């Protein structure tokens, strides 16, 4: 009899403990973490698990018991369904109110500007910094130009296996955060189509397709510091491709340092995608983009040209027969232009003397 009483007493104690825990848990669900707290911004990253979200909620003072939040979410079949995005939550909210709020993210548009002459990696980094899309996801989509070729007729001359380098128009946009990379790319391609239409009927260069023109425009963009000089610089490069000038320019070599910068890639020393101080090793790099070694245009664009560069490339100033240009000693981004190699050497000597 004594054992039965002890057993009953033990069961009663366990029941009391369970009831107490349940009561405490119920209170935790109903009570805010801080009745006097202020609203805070709460961000759920794409792919975050429920337990990770719970830990983050506690670290921001929005809940006290992450385990209880995880249990509540799973009991309501919300595990893995809490949406990535930005929220405004308050410690005055109950745990149940927070789980309801986290089912509908606040979508914000973010303004972002891409300057002329950016390469794909720089565009990707800009998008990631603005929390619009992850750089790796964007680059994966942008490097597969073929998937967009059927949607945009201006991509008809895009070679198989080519990326969208040069076709994502540099401008100011507004995108939602955590956007789909394909949607971002389509917006930028649509802007390119709109801008290209303004110069399409005025192309004065014979026998060039869209891909060739955009490729040249990207070089003009990177080689020009002044908009007024763009038609002259475009004229130099188009002139260098003319067969009659091949003996003077090494057999149709463009000799554009910007293409070598593109081939070299990111400089950890200068921390830029456009290395300024090219070495002799850089100038000899084995790449189809090395226009000091490979005649003709490179395989594709090296950056995104703006409308000024596109227009200058379509309507070049090539009447003077210029084949060379050298930075001037004015140090304002301007150049001296030469039609002969002798004249080029004179300007180069002047440039070296004023350094």
TrEMBL record:
GO BP: cell wall organization; peptidoglycan biosynthetic process
HAMAP family found in the cross-reference section: MltG
The keyword Endoplasmic reticulum is annotated on this UniProt entry: no
Residue numbers marked as site, Important for catalytic activity: 223
Reaction equations catalysed: a peptidoglycan chain = a peptidoglycan chain with N-acetyl-1,6-anhydromuramyl-[peptide] at the reducing end + a peptidoglycan chain with N-acetylglucosamine at the non-reducing end
KW Transcription regulation (keyword) present: no
Any one GO molecular-function label of the UniProt entry: lytic endotransglycosylase activity
Domain of life of the native organism: Bacteria
Organism: Candidatus Chloroploca asiatica
Function (record text): Functions as a peptidoglycan terminase that cleaves nascent peptidoglycan strands endolytically to terminate their elongation.
The protein's name: Endolytic murein transglycosylase
E.C. numbers: 4.2.2.29
Keywords of the record: Cell membrane, Cell wall biogenesis/degradation, Lyase, Membrane, Transmembrane, Transmembrane helix
Pfam families, sorted: YceG
Cellular-component GO terms for this entry: plasma membrane
Family statement: Belongs to the transglycosylase MltG family.
């Amino acid at each position: 009899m004594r054992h039965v009483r002890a057993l009953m007493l033990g069961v009663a104690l366990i029941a009391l403990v369970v009831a107490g825990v349940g009561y405490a848990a119920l209170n935790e669900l109903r009570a805010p973490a801080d009745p006097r707290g202020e609203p805070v911004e709460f961000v759920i990253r794409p792919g975050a698990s429920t337990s990770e979200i719970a830990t983050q909620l506690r670290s921001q003072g929005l809940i006290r018991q992450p385990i209880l939040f995880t249990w509540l979410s799973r009991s309501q079949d919300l595990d893995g369904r809490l949406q990535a995005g930005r929220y405004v939550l308050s410690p005055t909210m109950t745990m149940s109110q927070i789980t309801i709020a986290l089912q509908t993210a606040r979508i914000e548009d973010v303004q972002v500007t891409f300057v002329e002459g950016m390469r794909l990696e720089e565009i990707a980094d800009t998008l990631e910094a603005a929390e619009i899309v992850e750089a790796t996801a964007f680059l994966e989509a942008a490097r597969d130009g073929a998937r967009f070729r059927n949607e945009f007729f201006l991509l008809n001359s895009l070679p198989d296996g080519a990326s969208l380098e040069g076709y994502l128009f540099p401008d100011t946009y507004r995108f939602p955060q955590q956007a789909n990379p394909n949607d971002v790319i389509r917006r930028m391609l649509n802007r390119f189509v709109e801008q290209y239409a303004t110069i399409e009927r005025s192309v004065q260069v014979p026998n060039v397709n869209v891909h060739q023109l955009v490729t040249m425009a990207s070089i003009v963009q990177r080689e020009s510091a002044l908009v007024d000089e763009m038609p002259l610089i475009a004229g130099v490069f188009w002139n260098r491709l003319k067969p009659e000038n091949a003996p003077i320019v090494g057999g149709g070599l463009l000799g554009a340092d910007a293409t070598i910068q593109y081939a070299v890639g990111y400089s950890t020393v200068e921390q830029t995608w456009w290395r300024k101080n090219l070495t002799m090793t850089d100038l000899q790099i084995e790449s189809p983009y090395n226009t000091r070694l490979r005649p003709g245009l490179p395989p594709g664009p090296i950056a995104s040209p703006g409308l000024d560069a596109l227009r200058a490339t379509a309507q070049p100033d090539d009447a003077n027969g210029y084949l060379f240009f050298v930075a001037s000693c004015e140090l304002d981004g301007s150049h001296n232009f030469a039609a002969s190699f002798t004249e080029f050497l004179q300007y180069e000597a002047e440039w070296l003397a004023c350094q």
